[in-house]
Design goal:
Single_hybrid_motif; OB fold (Dihydrolipoamide Acetyltransferase, E2P); biotin; Biotin_BS; elongated; about 55% strand; Biotin_Carboxyl_Carrier/Decarb; seven-stranded antiparallel sheet; 2 domains; four-stranded antiparallel sheet; mainly beta
């Protein structure tokens, strides 16, 4: 089965391509963001003006006109078809215990600013230490546990703003 892609241009026009069709044009790089494309005996100048790799959106200038392009692969299309969305993830404000255990250390305090990935606390569960990290940048609003306290699964540990 051949890999397929769906491309939406300027939020209106939709195109489907196979991997072979994408690699068919003759493309040569003329600078870090500029390209010369030869396709069906026609010449095009292309420039990548903006790119957001995570959301797979790009602004591309072809000859003298700019286009907003969103690329979706088969997995993206399946996720969309199922009514799910990776981009529409909700902001996490509550840090809850993923499993029952013992709080070995609380590394933050109320009012403290944290960055995504910063260590918040250490939870021992099944003789393993698990360090819980901040899911996003924010401020610690409330710490509801202390060192040495036992917690149940899904118990609120830290609330963030």
């Amino acid at each position: 089965m051949e890999e397929k892609y769906k491309v939406k241009v300027n939020g209106e026009l939709e195109f489907e391509f196979t991997k072979d069709q994408i690699s068919a044009p003759d493309v040569s790089k003329s600078s870090s963001s500029a390209f010369h494309i030869l396709h069906n005996s026609r010449s095009f100048k292309a420039e990548l003006q903006e790119s957001d790799f995570l959301s797979k959106t790009y602004t591309v200038k072809i000859n003298s006109k700019s286009y907003q392009v969103k690329i979706s692969n088969e997995l993206d299309l399946l996720i969309d078809e199922m009514g799910l969305s990776l981009a529409a993830a909700q902001v996490v404000n509550d840090i809850k215990a993923p499993m029952p255990g013992l709080i070995l250390d609380v590394l933050v305090e109320e009012g403290q600013e944290v960055k995504e990935g910063d260590y918040l606390l250490v939870l021992e569960a099944m003789k393993m230490e698990n360090t819980l990290t901040a899911p996003r940048d924010g401020v610690v609003k409330f710490v509801s546990v202390q060192k040495g306290e036992t917690v149940d699964k899904s118990q609120l540990l830290i609330e963030m703003d």
